[in-house]
Amino acid sequence: MKKPNIVVLGAGYGGMMTTVKLQKSLNASEANITLVNKNDYHYQTTWLHEVSAGTVHQDQARITIKDVINEHKVNFVQDTVVEIKPNENKVKLENGELDYDYLVIGLGFESATFGIPGLEENALMINDINSSRLIREHLEFNFAEYHKDQNPARLNIVVGGGGFTGIEFVGELANKVPELCKEYDIDKSQVRIINVEGAPTVLPGFDPELVEYAMNSLEARGVEFITGALLKESKPDAVVYEKDGKLNEIPTLTTVWAAGVKANTIVEKSGFETNRGKIQVRPDMRAPEFDNVFVIGDCALIMNEESGRPFPPTAQIAIQQSATVAHNLVSLVKGHGELEGFEFKSLGTLASLGHNDGMGVVFGDKKLFGWKATFMKKMSDNRYLMKLGGIGLLLKKGKFNFFY
Ligand SMILES: Cc1cc2nc3c(=O)[nH]c(=O)nc-3n(C[C@H](O)[C@H](O)[C@H](O)COP(=O)(O)OP(=O)(O)OC[C@H]3O[C@@H](n4cnc5c(N)ncnc54)[C@H](O)[C@@H]3O)c2cc1C
Predict the structure, then answer these.
(1) Is 168 an active-site residue?
(2) Which of 55, 118, 229, 274 is positioned for an S-S bond with 234, CB 3.0–4.6 A?
(3) Please, which pLDDT band fits residue 378 given cuts at 50, 70 and 90?
(4) β-bridge partners, 63
């Protein structure tokens, strides 16, 4: 009997963990497993705000794929997916084409700019290793260049969006800016870190006590918040926002847009039925129209029956989904066992606010503040590394600087 071809697209949290689980459960004689990814490394998106601010080097946030996969069982293809052809069971790559019997789509997210003029052209985004490194280099360049023209716009850093990513990023900036000022001979009082948020408060949806803690901690370190303010335009040298019906402009050469993500647009372009750009999966994580296509992570939409809204896209849910996807694929390949349904078990939400500070909720309703929150966040990162690559990977990439 012909061995089935399982093709996993994207080596993010969902795709990587599915591949590692499949290689543990299937023999080379049972299936051909192929993992496709743009780069030869997996990166931890949850650390990208640190790479962007320059508080962590990019190598700390990325893992060489071949260090984690078993090459006797998994064929790694470094290439870019251009299109999925679900009616033909084919995937078009920049440099070729792949046939599959089973497909896992784990292509992650893209920034959503909601048609705001100038954002695509002028703003920086925290999307992947390269875009994050660009932000770090851009910040340093402007601090260095300031001595040439004394343009204050070089020292105004505007972050669009006071959600999880925007707040984690300004927390890192609050720590990094004093270091940059020292390195580039700049008076700290000349630098502004400005967070612009459309909702009446930052971190909408978070417990008010946690929001207050975050704002106080960040304001004490110099972050300015402009809430209830809609970003209207990003220019090469300014941003325009509307507040209380009035337009205001902040001169800046650095706008970082952190206010929205959408699923990888390849999904929509490939003709899948979508809801908010994502594939609303069946309980067993398969696409509604295709019995051999699984969708995972930020490309998948699952409704939370309790709230009546989709579960937010997180690494946590992508990692949990990988267990269901891998289990169901193994059942299909081996031809025995039932397909199981996915159930999300929230392990909590923790946001970092810079070195040794954070806040969040764990174990249902236990609120954590300060170093306890960052400790728990680092522990959960470390647990992920352990699951992905065992003790070797944990020792190489783990976060052990618990009190920094
Ligand atoms: C700054 C930041 C902080 C965050 N913090 C948290 C947090 O603390 N906790 C949490 O749970 N979630 C957090 N998230 C959200 C979380 O990171 C995402 O939900 C998660 O990464 C989604 O995982 P995924 O497997 O769907 O895709 P991703 O992890 O995004 O991976 C997608 C992979 O697909 C590859 N790829 C994309 N397009 C192509 C293509 N065309 N061809 C080939 N390969 C391609 C990419 O290179 C990447 O390797 C954060 C996100 C950001 C941006």
Answers:
(1) yes
(2) 118
(3) very high
(4) 42
Is the C-alpha dihedral spanning 391, 392, 397, 400 positive or negative? positive
**To which H or E segment does residue 158 belong?**
strand 156-160
The token pair at 313 is 């896209």
Nearest ligand 1 atom, CA 315: 11
Sign of the C-alpha dihedral computed for residues 83, 342, 321 and 207 taken in this order:
positive
Q: Of 18, 45, 111, which is best to mutate to test ligand 1, by the most ligand atoms within 8 angstroms of its C-beta? A: 45
Cα of 384 vs centre of ligand 1, distance in Å, is 14
How far is it, in rounded angstroms, from Cα 146 to Cα 98? 50
- Atom 15 of ligand 1: nearest residue by CA position: 314
Joined tokens for residue 329:
């694929």
Compute the C-alpha angle 147/156/178, nearest 5°: 70
Catalytic choice (50, 97, 145, 168): 168
- 67-96 pLDDT, tens digit per residue, is 999 999 999 999 999 999 999 999 999 999
One-letter amino acid identity for 99? D
| CB contact set of 270 (below 8 Å; sequence gap of 6+) | 83, 84, 85, 86
ipTM of the assembly? Answer: 0.98
Q: Kindly report, residue by residue over 112-159, the tens digit of the pLDDT.
A: 999 999 999 999 999 999 999 999 999 999 999 999 999 999 999 999
Report which residue type is found at 200: P
For a pocket test of ligand 1, which of 36, 107, 131, 133 has the largest count of ligand atoms closer than 8 A to its C-beta?
A: 107
What ligand 1 atom has the least distance to the C-alpha of 377? 8
Compute the distance from residue 181 Cα to the ligand 1 centre, in Å.
32
164: tokens are: 């999880």
Contacts of 165 (CB under 8 A, 6+ apart): 49, 126, 258
Pocket of ligand 1 (CB under 6 A): 10-15, 36-39, 42, 45-46, 48-49, 80-81, 106-109, 126, 128, 165, 168, 264, 266, 297-298, 313-316, 318
Asked if residue 362 has pLDDT above 80, the reply is: yes
User: Is pTM beyond 0.90 here?
Assistant: yes
Which string of DSSP letters, residue by residue, matches 101-156? SEEEE---EEE--TT-TTHHHH-EE--SHHHHHHHHHHHHHHHHHHHHH--GGGGE
- 315-334 helix and 371-397 helix, angle to the nearest 10 degrees: 50
Q: Which residue puts its alpha carbon closest to atom 37 of ligand 1?
A: 107
| DSSP SS3 for 29 | coil
**Residue 387 — left, alpha, or beta (φ > 0 → left; ψ -120 to 50 → alpha)?**
alpha
